[in-house]
Amino acid sequence: MCRLADNGNYGVKMGNQLRGPAVKTRWLFVVMVLTLGAAELSRGQDVAGTMWAQSMLADRFERLAHLTVSSGGPLHPAQITRARILLDRANAMDPDSAERWRLTWKLSDAADDPEASLAALRQYIKLAPKDD
């Protein structure tokens, strides 16, 4: 084991990946920093600049969520939870991305959350009505 932070969280390094509570703390820290960064970017800018910054940050959250669940093996519940948090933040910042809502629908389905899955599917159909 190696100590990763002064707050007492430890993690085990397995190959190139870290496992343990410190990884969860690091993910939450990344989300918090990016969210605070978006708030700072939106201060003092015009509406178009704010929307652009939020859209860029939402895209970044979507990419992080995709990386979280694209390990190739079976998904761990913690991976699904992290990805859902990131996608929820992305959808709140930029709710007009049909592809993001499709990913949210699939992830909610994998998490066995029928209410969230149905809500995401409805939003996806609303944004992309002609998709088969």
Write the layout of secondary structure elements.
Elements: E1 2-3, E2 10-14, E3 17-19, H1 21-42, H2 47-69, H3 77-93, H4 98-110, H5 114-127
Antiparallel strand pairs: 1-2, 2-3
Helix pairs in contact: 1-2, 1-3, 2-3, 3-4, 4-5
List keywords for this structure.
mainly alpha, 5 helices, single chain, disordered N terminus, 132 residues, globular, three-stranded antiparallel sheet
Describe this structure in words.
The chain is built from 5 helices and 3 strands. It is mainly α and 132 residues long. Helix 3 (77-93) packs antiparallel against helix 4.
Largest sheet: 3 strands, antiparallel
Q: Order of strands in the sheet with the most strands?
A: 1-2-3
Low-pLDDT windows of residues = 1-15
Mean of residue pLDDT values: 75
- Per DSSP E runs of 2 or more residues, the count of β-strands stands at 3
Gross morphology is: globular
Structural class: mainly alpha
| Distance between the amino and carboxyl termini | 49 Å
What's the quick description here?
By secondary structure, the protein is mainly alpha-helical.
